[in-house]
Design goal:
single chain, two-stranded antiparallel ribbon, 14 helices
Length: 344
């Protein structure tokens, strides 16, 4: 009994309730004509696509910079890596590797500048990060139109200038990671093994980083700044490193998402990933100054699972196409719940 009580205390009733609700949706799905294998496939794919974006929250949370509402800074770096890779007409593994390298390099520069800014607004990081993320998206909307890209697959056809809103990567590096070692369980259930392994690798690297001297110093800064300062740790330096790492992970996450989705979504698309990424890690049990890999995995599974299953089951149950309305209600309802936890 004590073990059960400890589990409930550590895991939390909200996550237990949401977990049982998700399981009940899978159980109810066949009774309303929804294929369980198709739904499970969608959840697994969405988990692999979004996992690294949620993982990018961990470094900034651990350093005391709070939730990274400025994640579009990193996502845009990933988009730059993707479109530059397309500009070079690189395909397959070479194409996505170059996209990663360019995206990470640009993200390191963006993250350094972003970190300098956050060091000047200590105590208001999440508010300023929100402004930075949103304003940077709109600044880049102008840049996407004036940067000299020439690839016919990327630029707008009527004038040959400015990038398209949606750029297909089907002929370049579509599913390069997803199809690597993929397992076909059934016609409707295909496990994107390569993408899942890549996510696990990123988790291991982040976990290993926080076991190093620098990672421990970052955690100390987030947990007790006064103790860290007394120990001779440069708080500003550690915060900048955490912001750079968070931004680079976001860039990687964006490219992984694109290779699975099949398109590079430009202009306002990064705004769609801000609150879901924040909500997912909070839903997994993280707070504004402490997060773990376990929080990332649990939160992403719960968030993407509910977001995938609820519209499918309810839409089939009432035989009316209200899936998009339900998706909006469920997504934003979960975000509201998750964000109210930040004060705990």
């Amino acid at each position: 009994m004590d073990a059960v009580n400890n589990f409930i205390k550590n895991f939390g009733w909200p996550r237990i309730i949401i977990g049982f609700f998700l399981i009940s949706l899978f159980i109810a799905a066949p009774f309303f004509g929804v294929r369980v294998d198709t739904s499970l496939n969608d959840v697994i794919v969405r988990f692999g696509m979004s996992g690294i974006m949620v993982l990018s929250m961990v470094p900034m949370i651990q350093s005391g910079c709070g939730l990274n509402f400025g994640i579009p800074v990193g996502l845009i770096a990933g988009m730059i890596g993707a479109v530059v890779s397309l500009e070079f007409n690189l395909v397959g593994l070479a194409g996505i590797v170059v996209a990663f390298l360019i995206g990470i390099s640009v993200a390191a520069v963006f993250g350094f500048l972003y970190g300098l800014l956050l060091n000047r607004v200590k105590g208001d990081e999440m508010i300023i990060a929100t402004y930075v993320g949103f304003s940077f998206v709109f600044l880049m909307n102008i840049m996407w139109l004036i940067l000299p890209f020439k690839n016919p697959a990327s630029v707008q056809g009527f004038k040959g200038e400015g990038l398209r809103v949606t750029i297909s990567i089907e002929e370049y590096w579509f599913h390069v990671l997803s199809d690597l070692l993929k397992i076909k369980v059934s016609k409707y259930l295909i496990i994107p093994t390569g993408m899942i392994i890549f996510f696990i690798l990123m988790c291991v690297l982040v976990w290993a980083f926080f076991k190093t001297k620098t990672g421990t110093a970052i955690t100390a800064v987030g947990s007790n700044p006064d103790y860290a300062r007394a120990s001779g740790i440069s708080i500003d330096k550690m915060r900048i490193i955490s912001v750079m790492l968070s931004t680079m992970l976001a860039a990687i996450g964006m490219i992984v998402y694109q290779q699975s989705f099949g398109f590079v979504q430009m202009f306002n698309s990064p705004l769609a990933f801000v609150f879901p990424s924040v909500a997912a890690i909070l839903l997994g049990g993280a707070s504004v100054n402490k997060a773990s890999i376990t929080n990332v995995i649990i939160g992403t599974i719960l968030f993407q699972g509910i977001l995938t299953m609820t519209p499918s089951v309810i839409n089939s149950a009432i035989n009316i196409d209200v899936s998009e309305i339900i998706r909006i209600i469920v997504a934003n309802g979960m975000i509201v719940y998750a964000l109210t936890r930040k004060g705990r």
